[in-house]
């Protein structure tokens, strides 16, 4: 069985990362979403263990000390981290795993696991991003402005990723993501066993 792909999926808050992934998973149910741990409060509609594991700062620090996290970072005043065990098992089982992760944590994963695939999702413009953030109506204007400031810092980091996808429409962004996964699975560097099998087949 071939090993699954680890896709590091990053982008500023409000670019619709979760929505794009939901559209992708609707057509590719065999893929798996890596659930991160976070100290931030749940948003309306979010469930513990589905979007995130919502934990206290004390619990988060304990997980970090016990080496239970592949990476961890602080973003907009909250801690985020990627539990190690579920990812390692899924990849071994041949499943593609998606990490919806901020840029700092994404860089840690890419260094630790260079075979991972980096995909950066972009808004059509900063103006559209601001409209999307305000459209949530879940955060104060000061928080929105902080997120836009963070976005201006993060967007140049897209150059450090393998692919960039603009989320103009969710359907098109999900299709582009599927094309990236397909292309990665056909890379010769991931198919040495296949090449050898063809050569050795009588």
TrEMBL record:
EC number in record: 2.7.4.8
PROSITE patterns: GUANYLATE_KINASE_1 (PS00856), GUANYLATE_KINASE_2 (PS50052)
GO molecular function: GMP kinase activity
Positions annotated to bind ATP: 11-18
The Guanylate kinase-like domain, residue ranges: 4-182
Record keywords, A-Z: ATP-binding, Cytoplasm, Kinase, Nucleotide-binding, Transferase
Location in or out of the cell: Cytoplasm
KW Cytoplasm (keyword) present: yes
Catalytic activity: GMP + ATP = GDP + ADP
InterPro entries according to UniProt: GK/Ca_channel_bsu, Guanylate_kin-like_dom, Guanylate_kinase, Guanylate_kinase_CS, P-loop_NTPase
HAMAP family recorded: Guanylate_kinase
UniProt function note: Essential for recycling GMP and indirectly, cGMP.
Family in the record: Belongs to the guanylate kinase family.
Protein name: Guanylate kinase
Native species: Caproicibacterium lactatifermentans
Gene: gmk
């Amino acid at each position: 069985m071939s090993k699954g792909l680890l896709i590091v999926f990053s982008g500023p808050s409000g670019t619709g990362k979760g929505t794009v992934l939901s559209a992708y998973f609707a057509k590719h149910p065999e893929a798996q979403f890596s659930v991160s741990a976070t100290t931030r409060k749940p948003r309306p509609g979010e469930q513990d263990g589905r979007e995130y594991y919502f934990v206290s700062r004390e619990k988060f620090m304990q997980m970090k000390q016990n080496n239970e996290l592949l990476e961890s970072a602080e973003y907009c005043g909250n801690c985020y981290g990627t539990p190690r065990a579920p990812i390692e098992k899924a990849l071994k089982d041949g499943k593609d795993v998606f990490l919806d992760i901020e840029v700092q944590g994404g860089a840690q994963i890419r260094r630790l696991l260079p075979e991972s695939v980096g995909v950066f999702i972009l808004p059509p413009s900063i103006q559209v991003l601001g409209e999307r953030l305000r459209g949530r109506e879940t955060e104060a204007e000061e928080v929105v402005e902080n997120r836009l400031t963070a976005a201006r810092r993060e967007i140049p980091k897209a150059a450090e990723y393998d692919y960039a996808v603009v989320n103009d429409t969710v359907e098109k962004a999900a299709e582009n993501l599927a094309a990236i996964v397909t292309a990665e699975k056909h890379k010769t560097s991931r198919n040495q066993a296949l090449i050898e099998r063809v050569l050795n087949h009588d």
